[in-house]
């Protein structure tokens, strides 16, 4: 089957890069800190270890390394970048945007750069915005980063969250193409879900001070069961929306790249979509949930399988609640 509209200008992914910190936090490390076990964590989440960024580094440092990885592998000149979009919930600081810090560290002094926060759906949101910029024909080279240093917001003693999250950064380079690229995106949010997954402290409602830190507001909190149910339902629905409005069935999709929050969520979405075995990609086992970085990192680590012309569907769910799905033709 052929997907695409003649004469349409697409934003195609023409490069991908990633960075994962060297330090690992294994299940046996967590067994020493709280009442949990490797067996429980693997069975309930599929995760064996996560990567933890060094304390003196921040989100921008991982993003810079991911971008450098992309530039080296795909022979890109960073001075060609027109726009740099950074999806993150863990900016280096409230101001300026982490995108500005990344640009400065890369020696780029006149790039349009800003952050967007849609939590675990952030990469999908930023990818669609980046594609839209290309489609205006005013931008020719757009970088879309998903990066999070979420370990700084995880209470190491809280077994309901410390088992899940790790740090990382992924990035894609978008360029115009008349052959294919980002075909569609369906993105939604519902702020009434904010009580089930959040980091309350450090914003304008609860500015960070010693008292708040004592009250634990600086840590990520979630109602895991509620988030789990909404994640499966919303990601499946979003995928059906994208397939329906493009006249596709699951058999047309070569690869599904779901947000990597829990292997059981990935499997449940796969079952809901009835995707053939092996077509839902996963790299959660050794990285955990890296928030906005999961999707680009999952593609980056599975590149050998993805062939030119393959149709790839992405789907994510996260705090907000925010969720969505997008579809692209792999053009590399
Ligand atoms: O990007 C979006 C971010 N978040 C998510 O997607 C999170 C989605 N939720 C989840 O992944 C799962 O809900 C969790 C992994 C957080 C929890 O798994 P669960 O299967 O929902 O477990 P549960 O909370 O229902 O707990 C089941 C049992 C309880 O014991 P009892 O009451 O049955 O005796 C818990 O106390 O497991 C116990 N438990 C644990 N045991 C060992 C809960 N956490 C742990 C733990 N180690 N870490």
Question: Which structural traits does this protein have?
Answer:
binds oxa(dethia)-CoA, 9 helices, 13 strands, 332 residues, alpha/beta, 5-stranded mixed β-sheet, 2 domains, 4-stranded mixed β-sheet, Peroxisomal Thiolase, Chain A, domain 1
Write up what this structure looks like.
By secondary structure, the chain is α/β, with parallel strands linked by helices. The chain has 2 domains: 10-180, 3-Layer(aba) Sandwich (Peroxisomal Thiolase, Chain A, domain 1); 184-329, 3-Layer(aba) Sandwich (Peroxisomal Thiolase, Chain A, domain 1). Helices cover 29% and strands 23% of the residues. It has helices spanning 27-31, 38-45, 59-74, 98-105, 122-135, 210-214, 224-245, 263-273, 294-301, and strands at 10-19, 24-26, 49-51, 83-87, 112-116, 142-148, 168-177, 182-189, 197-198, 221-222, 255-258, 311-318, 322-329. Helix 3 crosses helix 4 and helix 7 (224-245) runs parallel beside helix 8 (263-273). It starts with 9 loop residues before the first strand and ends with a strand. The site of oxa(dethia)-CoA has 20 residues, from helix 2 and helix 7.
